[in-house]
Design brief:
Elements lengths: L2 E2 L2 E2 L24 E3 L8 E8 L8 E10 L3 E2 L16 E2 L18 E11 L11 H8 L3 E12 L11
Length: 166
Amino acid sequence: MVDKLKFTCPGIFEGGQFPIDNTGRGKDQSPAFYLDNLSPQAQVLAIILEDLTHPLKKEFTHWLIWNIPASSRIPSGLMGGFEAENLPSARQGLAYRGYRYAGPRPPLGQTHDYRFTVYVLDQSMELGRWTWKPQLLKAMQGHILQKGQLTASFGSEKPLTPIPAS
């Protein structure tokens, strides 16, 4: 049985809205994460961000990162790249917009629901740069100590109305 992880992200609340800075319409900056009841056996963390209401692909992956050193705080603004410069041991897999955090950015006039899932693992995952979500999930099987989720939405402005030709 996997224990429930309790975590928060500043400005993002269960059932609430994403702050603009954490979206593709703002700074597109990953939020900070604060973990409240981290297992003493924790070695590393993994995070997946998914769009739950994407019209073409269920649970469309926006961000995939693993081998984050186990800590009660993950800083905001993690840099892009397979090896994040400001968190060198972490690895980012292939997701929407490549090896980086890609915050919510639904089409204009739509609101989508997004879910962060944080996994606490008992060992690091030796995965390569061509890793997608299914490979990470498979590698983590049997190594998940805790798991927590946070779901929030983001809606954009109404689409622009075309100006009628005169």
